[in-house]
Specification:
Length: about 160
């Protein structure tokens, strides 16, 4: 028995849905699973505002300076780790607020690149930043400082992501 147009259409629709579901369910993975992280003040693992989960980030370490209040402050440093061509990480909160700073630094030099983005709010967004070709493979650190006070005076970051 030959398939009808209806069967062909149903099969094609099912295939498209399965590809979409497979793509959407791909989890993010850490690019540097043994990455060293140091924090001061209110920065702590899972310290970002819990308003919205970081989707597809199962097993990804996240840090935030919120930790219960917008006025909390502190610092975070991730690394060193070898610089990829494209640095990918999760970002949350308000990194552009006055007093907040987030940057990548080529280890052992004064060369930095700002990692600030638009204020994201109480959600997570994956950010991709192309690093200078001269940095690729060399050790870098990601440094964050929260000195902002008042509403939106916090931000969060994930460990670097694979991909």
């Amino acid at each position: 028995m030959l398939p009808t147009k209806r069967h062909l259409f149903s099969g094609l629709a099912l295939a498209i849905i399965l590809v979409w579901v497979s793509h959407r369910s791909q989890s993010l993975r850490p690019a540097q699973p043994t990455l060293t992280v140091s924090t001061t003040g209110s920065w702590q693992q899972d310290g970002a505002y819990p308003g919205e989960l970081f989707l597809n980030a199962t097993g990804i370490r996240l840090w935030g300076s919120w930790s219960g209040a917008d006025d909390y402050t502190g610092t975070i440093e991730l690394g060193p780790f070898p610089a990829p061509r494209m640095l990918r990480f999760g970002l949350s909160g308000y990194p552009n607020r006055g007093g907040n700073d987030l940057q990548a630094r080529l280890d052992g030099t004064a060369e930095t690149i700002s990692l600030k983005d638009v204020d994201i709010g109480e959600r997570w967004r994956v950010v991709d930043l192309e690093l200078p070709s001269a940095w690729v493979g060399r050790p870098i650190r990601i440094s964050g400082r929260d000195q902002a006070k008042g509403a939106g005076g916090w931000f969060g970051i994930s460990e670097p992501l694979h991909g």
